[in-house]
Specification:
Elements (H helix, E strand, L loop, with lengths): L1 H22 L1 H50 L1
Length: 75
């Protein structure tokens, strides 16, 4: 219980400090840079996920077609 208290206090202090730092022009610039980098990172993850999903769908379609061809040959 004591650890949870300190976790909550730490989060609260972090928010207060971040708010005070963001009022400063250089602090705002710092947070804007972090925001931009995190958005780029998220976009790269989404792009990679979609690319991998497309590859896997292609493999599934190719496999389904191969199975269908085998079924036709066996008939």
């Amino acid at each position: 219980m004591k650890n949870v208290f300190w976790l909550i206090v730490g989060i609260g202090v972090g928010f207060v400090v971040a708010h005070l730092v963001s009022k400063n022009p250089s602090g705002k610039k710092f947070f804007d840079e972090i925001d931009g980098k995190s958005r780029e990172f998220a976009a790269a993850i989404v792009e990679g996920y979609k690319g991998r999903e497309a590859e896997l769908r292609s493999v599934v379609i190719d496999t389904e077609n191969a199975i269908a061809d085998l079924g036709k040959k066996l008939k």
